[in-house]
Structure formats: C-alpha cells, structure tokens
Specification:
Blueprint lengths: L3 E4 H31 L7 H26 E4 L14 E6 L5 E7 L10 E3 L3 H6 L7 E6 L2 E11 L2
Parallel strand pairs: 1-2, 4-5
Antiparallel strand pairs: 3-4, 3-7, 6-7
Helix pairs in contact: 1-2
C-alpha cells in the first residue's frame, strides 16, 4: 500500500473528525433511526429513509478516515530545513506577470484549503514547485493557461 503524506496538524484534524463521527454523529443517527422506526410503516417513512441514508454516509466516512489514518506518513515539518521545495514547505511566490505575491504551504491532499494557503501536493502548482529552490522561475500549466512564478523564499515552520 502506498503511504499518504500528511502534516501532524492534518493527521490530528482527521483523528478529531473520526472521533466526532464515532462518538457524536453515529449515536445521533442510531437514535434518529430508532425514533423513526417507532412511527410505524417503514416503507413510507421519510425520516427513517433519511436517517438510514445519513447512517450510510457516516459509516462510509468512518471507513475512509480509518483507512487514510492507517496509511498516513506523518511528516514533522518543523524538523525539515533547506531552500529546496518539498512536502511541508511554505513557499512565497511572486507572479511574474502581475507582480502579485502569495504564500502556500504544500500539504497532503486531505489537508488542502487554498483559501487558507494550504496547497495540495497533487495540485499542478505544487507539482511544479517540488525540487525547485529560492530564486527559480516555475512555469505552471493549468486548465486556465500557463503562469510563471518566481520563488522568493522557502521555509519549514
């Protein structure tokens, strides 16, 4: 099985979600199914069918999280250093066309949130940055066209 790279923060967020699903959501949906059953005829009981559908979603997400956590390779970003872009790096870029600056941390797929500056390792920009260093220019091919960025700094925090 292939390991899934993940920061310590991303790992703990997935653990918290799993704990919440098991201790809160699962119990609530079991209660909702029980209450819906008490209403009688299950074939025409919308509450029952909705609760069963929600239960299926919760159980599926629990299984997905357990699998991801078991395959996780937690990388302690604080122990990394250097000026070469790798997983976990916070990279400051400047768009060579617009002169707009941006900062992204390269994280695991399940941790990505571009609005917060967390860039998935599988994103075209991240794939283009990996292995480059401060001062390098990077051309990124995206569905919206090509963009060129200069790497201003690389940090591991």
């Amino acid at each position: 099985m292939q390991r899934i790279p993940m920061t310590a923060g991303g790992f703990s967020r997935l653990q918290e979600e799993l704990k919440h699903l098991k201790t809160v959501e699962r119990i609530a949906v079991i209660k909702a199914i029980s209450e819906a059953r008490a209403l009688g005829d299950l074939s025409e009981n919308a509450e029952y069918h909705a609760a069963r559908e929600r239960q299926g979603f919760i159980e599926g997400r629990i299984a997905e999280l357990e699998a991801k956590l078991s395959l996780a390779e937690v990388i302690d970003v604080a122990k990394l250093k250097g000026d070469i872009v790798r997983f976990g790096a916070s990279v400051k870029l400047i768009d060579e066309e617009t002169e707009e600056e941006s900062i992204y941390q390269i994280v695991g797929v399940d941790e990505s949130d571009i609005k917060k500056g967390f860039l998935s390792i599988s994103a075209p920009l991240a794939r283009s940055l990996i292995g480059k260093k401060t001062g390098d220019s990077v051309e990124v091919h995206t569905p919206g066209g090509s963009k060129t960025y200069e790497i201003i700094s690389v940090e591991f925090v």
